[in-house]
Structures are given as structure tokens and as C-alpha cells.
Design goal:
By secondary structure, the chain is of the alpha/beta class. The protein contains 17 helices and 15 strands. It has a six-stranded antiparallel β-sheet with strand order 2-1-4-5-6-7, with helices on one face. Strands 8-12-13-3-14-15 form a six-stranded mixed β-sheet, sandwiched between helices. Strands 9-10-11 form a three-stranded antiparallel β-sheet.
């Protein structure tokens, strides 16, 4: 539900913040006072069009913020899809309009119009002579009817239909695979065999072989360099090791005279041991190093095979391996498809038969409920001064789809001389609003919309019709939040919160909105009763409130 609204520098409003009640919120005020400004602001915040003309004269930008309280809708997937932070049950929707354009945010995260439309469809319905409401959209009619019926058959159907569409996708993939020519299949087999027969050891096999080849090709030079280094270190009487031993003996004698040199003697001994180890390693390396021409030829041949694969299948052995996996799966798929298309076709046919039978049962349920609900809507409309109205939930058979085999559309005729027409084609805004109210009243318990706004719903009605309308609106507010602009005292008297709009014109024109409580509420309704506040209108207002 709509918890609160904050508006700044919007049309004739300097700044205001209002909290809405859970049930029936009524907006009243003098003609021309700007009662629709608040409704328009809500509309704009949830994706309605707004140009820079809504910015209050003399200011840079207009700001509208809505706080929506959510308890019944799971929005996790929507938050994730649009990158919105989940801040709990209260959702902040803001709109900023400047001279250069506008931007929208939800919980501080920038969002586009598509996202705003999604939130609007979940939380809000605006009914006025200038709005397109969700109830007029034919695509929503089947959802409303099914939500009212709550058929377990439909749940079973949807689960079966999901399986049906998955199998059809599988069949399509198999059929595409099976359409390859024999020549294409032979080439595919050749590619798979070429990669698999190479038996690539690892994705860096070529690097390892290149390193090994470089060593073998330089074996003689490596043998010479490491051998000479060994002899220089410890291979003859003039080696570095012998020289270090002489130095160590000298330091040892010196340490006998000055014990501070003992550490130096130990460090020198460690150096000699290290050099002897290096010399030994160089000797072993030099002895093992031989030029193996056969091994060189073997590595070069292997690298030739790997390079050929890399040129054909991706540039690296990792890409070659990925290509091999992909080609193998494609080949396996072809072999699988030729064996399983018939079996899959049989399974799809079986499920389609079950869907057809289930869809017929669902269609019968819809027709039965459709007749009952059509009568109920007509009964409601008669109370709302539309006595000649005809309402019908039209059901047309269509090919199987996720909703069954029906196309649902609400049809209506408001005049005896006119045929039933789609509800979206009704011309009169006042009639539409009352029709919407009647439908809302019937579907209230199954409609998931949290907040409904009615503007100009009471145009042209009075007396008994006003009483009926007031009762319907009050009853509807038990199931959803209602925000309503009205000129009727009998309707305003039933409010859970009463907002009064007042325009002032001093040095500048401003619109202010007040919450009327206690005596102020009585005075506000008294003004609606007679156009002025008198003892008689105050008594009548109090009677209406107490009724």
C-alpha cells in the first residue's frame, strides 16, 4: 500500500509530506483547488509522463517521493533483475524532474520506465477519465477470472504445459541436428577423430615440448659450458675450491690468535661446501647431456601435429580441447536425435492430449464462473445508476497456450441500443470509473493490487446512487487501500483519512493539503453538504460520519 508521499516544487506546491491510511483515503476541496495534483504526482512517480512544466515557477527542479509498504508480494527476483537494493518492507520510489530531463530511482538505485511499469502493475491502479487502467487491458481479464476461481486444474495444467514446452524445444533441437547431410556428418566425424587421436596430454604440452627441444638442440654447448664451469670450481689443483681452502687455513690460524674470526671461518666453510655442491651438480648435468637426434625428431614431429591443430581449431591447445568437446557433443547429438525423435514425438503427443482434456475442464469452469460473475457485476452496476447495462465475460476458444485454450475479454453495453463491446472501448470516463468499481468490488478478494485510486468516480450521480457507491467503496477498502477524490459528502464521511485541498493566491498561487480530523473533518463534510458551514450542515455531517 501507499504509505506516504513527499512533494517539493511541484506545480503549485512548495513542499508537503502526507501519510496515507490503510483503508479509505478521501480527497476533497473547492472546484479548481487542485485536488488532482496529488493523484498526478503519484502517477508521475510511477512512470507517468511529466515535462518541465510541472516544475514550480522560480525553482530548478521538482521532486516526488513515494513510500510503498509491501507485505504480500515477493519482489526478490524483480530487485535482482533491475539491480535494486532490498531495504525491507518499505520501498522508496522517487522522481526528480529538472530542466534537462527526469530521473527515477527505487531505493536509491536508478531505474528505467520498464521497471517503474512493473512496480505500478503490482501496487497501483489509477482510475480516472484520463488514465488507462489495468482492468481495461484484455490480457489481465483471464488473470482476474482465474484468480477468482482458484482452480487446482489450472495449476496442474501449467505444470504440464511447462513440461510440454520443454519437450518441444528438445524436439526442435533434435530435428535441427538430424537435418545435417551425410557429408556434413562425415566431416564432423573427421574433425572429432583428428582432435581425439592427437591425445593431447595437457593444454601446455606444446610449451613443455618447445622447452625440451631447445635444450636438446643446444646439448653440446650446454655440456661444454657446464663441464668447464665444474673444472673451474673444483676440477684441478688451481680450482676455486683449492684457493678457498688455502684462505680458510689462513683464517683458521688467525682465529687461533683472535677468536672473533671464528664466525668468519665457519661462514667460509659453508661457502666451500656450497661451491662443492654446485660443482657436483654441474658435473652430473654435463655428463648427462647428450645430443639425441632421434628424440629431437620425435619432438619436432609432435609439435608439427599440435601446431596444425592449433591453426585449425583456435590458436591454443586449450581452444583445441574446447572445440573437440563441442564437436563431440554435436556428433553425439546427431546420433541421439536420429534414435529419439520418434520417441519424443510420441511423448509430446501424449502430453498434448492430456493438456487438451485438462484445458476443456478449465474452460468449462471459466464459463460457469463467468456467467455467475457477469450477473454479479450487472447487479453492482444497477446500484451505481447504470440500470440498463449488460456485462459479459466473453470466452473464445484459441490454440493451446500457457493459460489453456481460452481468450477472455470483459464485454459491456451501457445502452439498450448498443451491442456488447470490449470494455476498453467505452467512451464515458464517468461510466468507466463506476464499472471499474463494480468489477473491483466483485474481484476484491482475489485481486492482488494493493492500492486503487478513483478520480471523478462520482461525476453525475446523487441520492441513492451516492449511498450505494459509498457503501461499495467502503467495502472495497477492507481488502485494499483506496484513495479517492470525491464531491459527495456521503462518500467522504466514510473515510479513514480525509485530505482537504486548498488553493491560496497572495503574492503567488500555492496549493496546500491538510488532514482533517475530529471537528475539522465534520466542518469539511458540512461544506460538501451545503457549500457552506452552518449548524444544520454540521449536524448532517456528523450524522453521516456516525452512520
Amino acid at each position: 500500500m501507499l504509505k506516504s508521499i513527499y512533494v517539493k516544487n511541484y506545480i503549485l506546491i512548495d513542499e508537503l509530506e502526507l501519510d496515507f491510511a490503510d483503508g479509505l483515503n478521501i480527497i476533497t476541496g473547492e472546484t479548481g483547488a487542485g485536488k488532482s495534483i496529488l493523484i498526478n504526482a503519484i502517477d508521475i512517480a510511477l512512470g507517468g509522463r511529466a515535462g518541465k512544466e510541472v516544475i514550480k515557477t522560480g525553482t530548478d527542479k521538482a521532486v516526488i517521493e513515494l513510500t510503498v509498504h509491501n507485505e504480500s508480494h515477493n519482489l526478490a527476483d524483480i530487485f535482482q533483475e533491475y539491480g535494486i537494493d532490498d531495504n525491507g518492507e518499505d520501498i522508496l520510489i522517487s522522481k526528480e524532474i529538472s530542466q534537462s530531463g527526469s530521473k527515477s530511482k527505487i531505493n536509491g538505485c536508478m531505474v528505467n520506465m520498464e521497471c517503474l511499469k512493473t512496480f505500478r502493475e503490482i501496487f497501483l491502479d489509477i482510475h480516472s477519465q484520463h488514465q488507462t487502467y489495468s482492468l481495461l487491458q484484455q490480457k489481465n481479464h483471464i488473470k482476474l477470472l482465474d484468480a477468482y476461481i482458484k482452480s487446482t486444474n489450472l495449476d496442474e495444467y501449467k505444470a504440464l504445459y511447462s513440461e510440454f514446452t520443454d519437450l518441444k524445444r528438445q524436439l526442435e533441437d533434435l530435428q535441427k541436428a538430424s537435418q545435417k547431410t551425410e557429408e556434413q556428418i562425415d566431416f564432423l566425424k573427421f574433425q572429432v577423430n583428428e582432435i581425439e587421436s592427437a591425445e593431447i596430454e595437457s593444454v601446455d604440452e606444446d610449451e613443455k615440448l618447445s622447452n625440451e627441444l631447445a635444450i636438446l638442440e643446444n646439448a653440446e654447448k650446454l655440456k661444454e659450458l657446464t663441464g668447464s664451469s665444474h673444472w673451474a670450481l673444483s676440477g684441478d689443483d688451481n680450482s676455486i675450491t683449492d684457493a678457498l681452502y688455502e684462505i680458510k687455513n689462513s683464517i683458521s690460524k688467525a682465529a687461533g690468535m683472535d677468536n672473533t674470526l671464528e664466525q668468519t671461518e665457519l661462514e667460509l666453510a659453508d661457502i666451500i661446501d656450497g661451491i662443492k655442491a654446485i660443482s657436483s651438480n654441474l658435473r652430473e648435468y654435463s655428463s648427462s647431456m647428450d645430443c639425441d637426434e632421434a628424440k629431437i625428431d620425435e619432438i619436432q614431429e609432435r609439435l608439427f601435429i599440435l601446431d596444425k591443430l592449433k591453426r585449425k581449431y583456435g590458436g591454443t591447445l586449450e581452444k583445441v580441447a574446447e572445440s573437440g568437446d563441442k564437436l563431440r557433443k554435436e556428433l553425439d547429438g546427431i546420433e541421439f536425435s536420429t534414435q529419439n525423435i520418434e520417441a519424443l514425438n510420441n511423448k509430446i503427443t501424449d502430453i498434448e492430449n492430456k493438456l487438451t482434456q485438462k484445458a476443456k475442464i478449465i474452460s468449462e469452469e471459466r464459463k460457469q464462473y463467468g456467467e455467475v460473475l457477469s450477473a454479479l457485476v450487472e447487479e453492482k452496476l444497477e446500484k451505481l445508476e447504470l440500470p440498463k447495462v449488460k456485462f459479459k465475460i466473453a470466452i473464445e476458444t484459441v490454440p493451446l497456450n500457457v493459460d489453456g485454450c481460452d481468450r477472455i475479454e470483459f464485454m459491456i453495453s451501457t445502452n439498450v441500443s448498443e451491442d456488447l463491446k470490449p470494455i476498453a472501448k467505452i467512451a464515458s470516463g464517468g461510466e468507466i470509473s463506476r464499472i471499474m468499481l463494480a468489477i473491483k468490488a466483485i474481484f476484491a478478494k482475489s485481486d492482488n493490487i494493493d492500492t486503487v485510486i478513483f478520480d471523478e468516480i462520482d461525476t453525475g450521480i446523487s441520492g441513492k446512487t451516492s449511498q450505494s457507491l459509498a457503501e461499495e467503496v467502503k467495502e472495497l477498502s477492507k481488502y485494499m487501500q483506496i484513495i479517492m477524490i470525491t464531491h459527495q459528502a456521503i462518500i467522504a464521511a466514510k473515510s479513514d483519512r480525509h485530505f482537504y485541498v486548498k488553493k491560496t493566491q497572495d503574492d503567488s498561487t500555492n496549493v496546500n493539503i491538510y488532514i482533517l480530523e475530529d471537528k475539522n473533518k465534520v466542518m469539511g463534510i458540512a461544506e460538501l453538504v451545503s457549500g457552506e458551514i452552518t449548524d444544520e450542515s454540521m449536524k448532517l455531517a456528523q450524522t453521516l460520519i456516525n452512520a
